[in-house]
Amino acid sequence: MKDIRVAKLADILVNYSVALKSGDFVFIRSNPLAEPLIDEVLAHVLRAGGNPITQLSTDGLRETFYREASEEQLKWVSPVDKMLISQSDVYISVGAPANTRSLTGIDPERQRIDQVAHTEIMEIFMKRSADGELRWVSTDYPCQALAQDADMSLRDYEDFVYRATFADQPDPIKCWREIHDKQERLVRWLKGKKQVVVRSLNVNLTLSIEGRNFINADGINNMPCGEIFTGPVENSANGWVHFTYPAIESGREVEGVKMEFKDGKVVKASAEKNEAFLLSQLESDEGARYLGEFAIGTNYGIQKFTKNILFDEKIGGTFHLAIGAGYPETGSVNKSAIHWDFICDIRQGSEILVDGKLFYKNGDFQV
């Protein structure tokens, strides 16, 4: 029996998140494990008049590439990938890994070389997104590997995903529009503000948001969503953060991360687990040691840490920072081959001051 929630999620992605229009060139990228959702997405795209192309890959193929490729091959960029990101009107990405740790045994330097080689494609993606030329959304299909990472059965994880995306509701799109309205009030209050101070037992950080825009993340680019974010002024971050949740990237779980900032730059970084990988990523390029994002999670329906950044960065009562590339629509000009999010819980003993006014305290907004 088909799960009606899969069709509802596809409808959200196609008709809300990317607001597909007849004639759109649609690039769909995923894993074969997500076939039930991809099948529904494809059907909805075709019904809406879109022209889709689907690209599927597996964890094993990716691992083989990193193990066998020469340095020259790691630096090679597929002209097909560049064309798809440069010319498509819509990009839909659906994650469904068979093994979230498939790249753990790969030398981080090999991944770094590949990432740096794809810097131009990332810049094209971000610029086209900021200019409104590329409408995109990323989501995950509930599968065994993600359920195991979340310490859930597959059935429980499916319920978690569909509840977080509102695919279990009679009118999911109405729910997301209500989220937009709630967050828009916060974004409007922040407009024109200059300085942010975040304090708790795990953070003492000051940064500038002068001239920058906060974005209302309401399910358009990430599904699920629920955050407000900006790109801080590149040379403004000063202070330190001890991130309370593990940061997971390329199959590696980096725990106990601490960073110190001076004039915007990460001048000291450490981790209790996989520190070498953290430091290798910070050396990716000049922009990797600067912040591309400051964000506050607003989705209070997500409270469990699942080791999946798509969900975890939205947890109500947290904030996160991303090192590396910033989103141009925020005003950020930081460029890098990486964009890596780190999350910190601020539900207790915390405050966020904006231009000296109490904006947030112990997990709740005060304005």
What does this structure look like?
It is a single chain. With 367 residues, this protein is of the alpha+beta class. It has 2 domains: 4-169, Thermophilic metalloprotease (M29) (Thermophilic metalloprotease-like, 3-Layer(aba) Sandwich), CATH 3.40.1830; 179-365, no CATH class. It contains 12 helices and 19 strands. The strands form 4 sheets. The chain has an 8-stranded antiparallel beta sheet. Helix 1 (4-17) packs across helix 2 (35-47) and helix 5 (79-87) packs parallel to helix 7.
Give the helices and strands, then pairings.
Layout: H1 4-17, E1 25-30, H2 35-47, E2 51-56, H3 59-68, H4 71-75, H5 79-87, E3 90-95, H6 108-117, H7 119-130, E4 135-140, H8 144-149, H9 154-164, H10 172-190, E5 195-200, E6 203-208, E7 215-217, E8 227-230, E9 238-242, E10 247-249, E11 252-254, E12 258-262, E13 265-270, H11 275-282, E14 291-297, H12 309-312, E15 318-324, E16 339-345, E17 351-354, E18 357-361, E19 364-365
Helix pairs in contact: 1-2, 5-7
